[in-house]
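Researcher: Next sequence.
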Amino acid sequence: MQSIGERLEEARKKKGISIREAAEATKIRGDYLSQFENNRFDINLTEIYVRGFLRSYASFLKLSGDKILNDYAALGRGDNRPRQPSREIYGRMDVSIASADDHSEAAAPEEVPAPLPAHRQSAVSRGSNVAAGPAIDPALLFKFGKWAGIGALALLFLWGVVAIVKSTGSSAATHTPPVTAVTKATVTPPVERTITLVAVDAVRVSVVSRNADDSEGDELFSGTLARGQSQIVPWPGPIYIKANAGENLQIEFKGKRYGSQFTGVGRAKM
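Model: Next structure:
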């Protein structure tokens, strides 16, 4: 059974391209691609980048990215982070749901002491000879809290009235006209949308605008792209992308690449 590197190298050579040409087309450094083909995956990058580069390179070579990543995972690669215990918070109590191992090592529950007799429940602590003070009537506490709240609101209202009176008097004494700040509105120009045409192999491409009745409008770009060459084209609205070899053309938008959706001579609608 072929290794990952052997399959990548064989697919690249079948396409008749060099490591440099593959690096220019995939935007991945050539030394990384060379190490992949030699089954060396320790390239001083995090796993998410290694897996992403492998998938992109495999897709470029018309290989199954999922199959390549599955074989890569079978090598024992990837991030194996320890599972953290779940934590839930109820009110002010922090409750941790431990693993099965934590339950096996948990200590036996402590014995709950029997309730105190009724004539000793008012004691400060068990065995204490000092009796607790008289209980406070909850109704009295409620009344006290209500009147305290009313008093606080009244003080706040008086403070606001005094502040308004002082501010009015100060304004009348100085006769300072109010200053109105004029803020200049900032107009942000609209951002022009673009797409990038990427040639997997030599291809003749033209891009024209698409009218409301689906007829062709103004020509936005027309030319021949060599293998690995890319071309940025404005995307003002609905367009047609025409090519003489659709399988050799890819469209890049917002960092993602898409196929032309046709082979041979054809036209794609965007």
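Model: Residues 138-174 form the longest helix (37 residues). Residues 119 and 181 are 75 Å apart (CA to CA).
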